[in-house]
Specification:
By secondary structure, the protein is of the alpha/beta class. The chain has one domain: Aldolase class I (TIM Barrel), CATH 3.20.20.70. Helices cover about 40% and strands about 20% of the residues. The strands form two sheets. The protein has an eight-stranded parallel β-barrel, surrounded by five helices. It has a two-stranded antiparallel sheet with strand order 3-4. Helix 2 runs parallel beside helix 3. The chain starts with a helix and ends with a helix.
Length: about 230
């Protein structure tokens, strides 16, 4: 199933955002119950501190990851503020079988939104405004990533005002909203995100660690169990 269909049709979806381009981490996340995988290119991963190489350096990894994942959607952050894939590399990604891309709106080249094969997950950051939400509502974005925490909030506990903010974003944009674990969200708090109207949770290094397959499988399984109980 395509990523955008999985998010739209599913009750609440578990996505694993891997801190390193490592097949053992991917296997662990899948074994724990992740329903989609996301990896990165061309940037320094903020939560883990890892530096990820360019498309050429990661092409074989992406091919191996897609094969490993089978029918599980694989997505890609194609770059960041300083570097991004080219239009030619976008065409190669589409042919490889990558299912979706993910990027902050402020880093995203306009040509990426012209893709007809990839689902479009676009992130807003802590600088968003109500005007941003109005524009998102009328946009071609398939899934909105509410990556709205400032850097000094990373790893802190989830608070009720965060839930109110997420709920506001859901209602104002009318888009399927995915929440990344910028804060140290607990499996038991999945129900609160679901009640706020969110459609997916994306776990990352802040809750699962930055390199242990055992930790990734254990964390994925804990969130999968919480989601199954919704």
């Amino acid at each position: 199933m395509r990523f955008k269909e999985l998010i739209a049709k599913g009750k609440f979806t578990l996505v694993a955002s891997l801190p390193a381009n490592n097949l053992d981490l991917a296997k662990a996340a899948l074994a724990g119950g992740a329903e989609a995988l996301k990896v990165h290119l061309n940037l320094r991963h903020r939560a883990s501190g890892n530096t990820l190489g360019d498309f050429k350096a990661n092409r074989q990894f992406l091919e191996d990851l897609i094969k490993l994942a089978g029918g599980t959607p694989v997505g890609l952050v194609p770059g960041g503020e300083e570097a991004f894939i080219t239009e030619e590399e976008l065409a190669e990604l589409e042919n490889l079988g990558v299912d979706f891309f993910s990027s902050y709106a402020g880093h995203l080249p306009a040509f990426m939104m012209q893709s007809r094969r990839l689902s479009k997950m676009v992130a807003i950051d802590h600088g968003y405004t109500q005007n941003t939400l109005d524009a998102v509502r009328d946009s071609e974005i398939d899934i909105l990533e509410a990556s709205i925490m400032a850097a000094d909030q990373y790893g802190k506990p989830l608070r009720y005002d965060d839930l109110l903010t997420y709920s506001d974003i859901v209602k104002k944009t009318a888009k399927p909203v995915l929440i990344p674990t910028q804060k140290k969200i607990l499996p038991s708090e999945t129900a609160a995100l679901f009640k706020a109207g969110c459609k997916a949770l994306m776990i990352g290094a802040i809750v699962a660690g930055d390199g242990s397959p055992g930790d990734w499988e254990k964390t994925s399984a804990a969130f999968r169990k919480a989601i199954a109980a919704l």
